[in-house]
Amino acid sequence: MDDVLSARRDEIGQRIRAFYECYPFPTYESMDSPTTLAQKAQAGVFASLLDRQIPYNARILCAGCGTGQLPIFLSLTGRRVVAIDFSLRSLSEGAKFVQRFGLKNVNFVQTDLFALGLKIQSFDYVICTGVLHHTGDPYRAFQNLCQLVRPGGHILIGLYNRYARIPLAARSWIFRLTGRRLDRLDYVIRHTQDEAKKLVWFMDQYANPHETSHRVDEVMRWFAANGLECVGVVPRLTPGAPLREADELFEPVPMGTAFSRLVGQLAWMFTIGREGGLFVMIGRQP
User: Fold this and answer.
1) What is residue 134's predicted lDDT score, i.e. its pLDDT?
2) Is the peptide bond prior to 235 cis by the omega test (within 30 degrees of 0)?
3) Which of the residues 52, 63, 115, 169 has an alpha carbon 20 to 30 A from that of 79?
């Protein structure tokens, strides 16, 4: 049975790797610079909070970094960042940007979440968003990442939410019938001018060869099974209570009851559902 699961995991990994060799994500624009990357990141509350609340001397792993925009942003103020991915083309895009601007604090490494080859308990923060749901075994990959977090460190896991992803599933059905003729039904495409960015977003969201979706309670069980304290979730589960600039990402917040968590996730269909339905769970290693 283990051999069968391993073979399926490897087969999915090969398909996903081939996909991102064709469609590295996210794309860079010709005028991008460290300054413009920082401006874009800081325009989003979550990235801005990460930048303000992760200490400047922290050692960070960005797992499944894609083209490396988040790790580059986090490295600009002196943090030491290791950025890993198994798509060589994606890593090359990030490495070219780093070389072009002479950036020093981020290193790109090609590796696999199932064979990391990194030192145990060597990072203060492990960030992996938009990645595990494209693997053949999200929980196993999560377990591997947990081993890399230092005592007292944090892990941030971003996954597609089962409920927030429902509107996208409906749009996906329409696109299967119409191709890209009605792609403006997608919020991100409707608000993007660059045609290359539109294509990469469409392919990543609607033509990806493999993905799964997950619930908050499921990931809470992942944390508990690996001895992690569940610190919180982004976005907040209380409907009408968005993430704010004053929020503390790494301070524990109440997670409510199973019913309130369900209601909160259903409400996500009308918020994060328009941009892919990605939620981030934050855990702390005791």
Assistant:
1) 97
2) yes
3) 115
The stretches in the chain having pLDDT less than 50 are none
**What tokens appear for 278 in the block?**
């990605």
- Determine the pLDDT at residue 225: 98
**pLDDT single digits (tens) 229-285:** 999 999 999 876 777 777 899 999 999 999 999 999 999 999 999 999 999 999 999
Burial class (CB within 10 angstroms; exposed 0-12, middle 13-18, buried 19+) of 258: exposed
Question: In whole angstroms, what is the distance from residue 231 CA to residue 155 CA?
Answer: 10
Tell me how far apart the terminal alpha carbons of the chain are, to the nearest angstrom.
34
Strand runs labelled E in the chain: 59-63, 80-85, 106-110, 123-129, 149-160, 229-234, 278-284
CA nearest 75: which of 108, 105, 33? 105
Q: Which CATH number fits domain 2-162+210-284: 4.10.910.10, 2.60.120.260, 3.40.50.150, 1.10.340.30?
A: 3.40.50.150
